[in-house]
Known about the structure:
Blueprint: E1 2-4, E2 10-12, E3 25-28, E4 31-34, H1 41-50, H2 60-79, H3 84-87, H4 101-122, H5 126-152, H6 156-176, H7 182-187, H8 189-209
Antiparallel strand pairs: 1-2, 3-4
Amino acid sequence: MLLPREGGGLGVVAQRQLNPPEAPAFAGEQGVFLFPFRSGTALRIALARHRPHTSLMPEPHVIAAILWAVILGGAGGLLTDIGPWYRNLKKPSWQPPDWLFGPAWTVILGLGGWAAVLAWNGAVDEAGRMTVIALFALNFVFHFLWSPLFFARQRPDWALVEVPFLWGSVLALAVCLREFSVLASWLVVPYLVWVSFATCLNFAIVRLNRPFGPKA
């Protein structure tokens, strides 16, 4: 570097390397980095290591909520056999058209999956998160059981015995999720209304067609 001489003019003085204690430092999450070096390499390394990493992969609880909705919706569709047996059942005049059930369940389960994510995010401790898991796991079991009983086993009367447990699991979601997210609680309300309607429809079909079973 160039410095003024006592007699005037400029003299050349060799630039000495800064010792670590004298060098400016950058403190990052991965450690402390000294700079400047030639061409600012250390600064670029420090900033690159300090930059947070982002990932396109959803968080595990989001994946779990999606699987909850997709599996229940897919299983319900696969196990719902609209064949001769079902078509020959007597049904109340107020039953909706068959094509409406698929879109309705898609929307309802999508809202339920969203509610699961909101509730998980609103849980502040491990106990809260375990509560959310338990509520949705219980609902998953009771929801999954209804279609095989009604369609695969062709026993609407058995399904009618099971459906109060499904209804209770949805009510538990609507009530208990409010502790973690008010919006999550409201998102489950369409699920509760639809299951309530399905319960009434199940009862009407049993009343109009009983008895069921091999001797029917």
